[in-house]
Amino acid sequence: MEAGIRNYLVVTGGYWAFTVTDGAIRMLVVLYFHLLGYSPFEVAMLFLFYEFFGIVTNLVGGWLGARIGLNLTMHIGMAMQVVALLMLTVPDAWLSVAYVMAAQALSGIAKDLNKMSAKASVKTLAGSGSESRLFKWVAVLTGSKNALKGAGFFVGAALLEWIGFRGALAILAGTLFAVLILTAILLPSGVGKMKAKPKFTQVFSNRAEINWLAAARFFLFGSRDAWFVVGLPVFLYSALGWDFTAVGAFLALWVIGYGFVQASAPRLVRHSHHGQGPGGGTARRWAFVLAVFPAGIALALRQGWDPATVLIVGLVLFGIVFAINSAVHSYLILAYSDFDKVSMNVGFYYMANAGGRLAGTVLSGWAYQTQGLEGCLWWSAGFVLAAALLSFKLPEASTGKKESAVV
Fold first, then answer.
1. Tens digits of per-residue pLDDT, 204-216?
2. Neighbouring C-beta atoms of residue 178, cutoff 10 Å
3. What is the pTM of this model?
4. Which helix (H) or strand (E) holds 372?
5. Which CATH number fits domain 3-189+207-393: 1.20.1250.20, 1.10.645.10, 1.10.1040.10, 1.10.1140.10?
6. CB 143 within 8 A of CB 267
7. N or C: which end of the chain has fewer CB atoms below 10 A?
8. By CB neighbour count within 10 A (0-12 exposed, 13-18 middle, 19+ buried), where does 195 fall?
């Protein structure tokens, strides 16, 4: 088997294992702390640092990966997740809001170190002159991650019911530690490591297309979370009368389906011939298509159509088009990046992604409280339009240097 393909499969397997624990720990924390009597606001606060530290980690993580190698930053992320899982196995008396927020902060850092490392590694493992393969590889990696995060929701809930909170955490920590050891043995050292040690100021890209793409990514993911994080689940529970299990199962299935669509994006997107992937025009067109759906759902709800049908159908269609948008963006950041700066560019880009998620999460709570679900949807549509307009600045073809400067 070609070495690049073998290493790609090892990176993907490690990313999969981490992602299952990421989805599982979120479900475990939500359900268990609800059982402990935490208010909805307190449960939401538990994840505040998880999202905030994603911004910081992506900024620092790309620079760190360029200095010490992407495989090492990936394994640091895995080790931190093991520690975060074990931190929550302490007695209930220790599980204060501050303590759990600290554990979730560690988990957030771990998640973004692992994600940045895995996705940046794909650029170096795919090799030069293979843009079509790069698009396929990053789409499969990203799509499978989202499908497995949804599966992690089920794993966390099932383990909680079968063996309890602490037993579930112990199994997840032990499994991830075993994967850490295995991937450390199988992967070559120094993937993505720059020959010259970069300065921290170099994490801020001086490439215009990367800055425009990061700005578009901020609004793209802000558009999803502006209604998906708080507004949608609260509406399903309070307005439609769904129970917690139904809400959780529906959202988990949406994430899994979203992941499958994302992995299939290369077959769904028409891209240029001669081995080239999609360009800025593709991102722009799909963003304009996406804006139709939150606006259409809001209008349908305003007209008094059956809200359950509108939301189920609308969310499915939104998820399909959003997944294609996300896959195109994930390809473009790698295509635009030079080999020797890929980790820093990916880190900068996912810092914008994390910022959009944080902004969308806060906006979702505020908009739902003041304007209802329709308000959340109109904010979502506005964010998508912003992403589409920013995409006019994206070039049509990849511009990253083809020569490798990594060791």
1. 556 788 889 999 9
2. 11
3. 0.71
4. helix 342-390
5. 1.20.1250.20
6. no
7. N
8. exposed
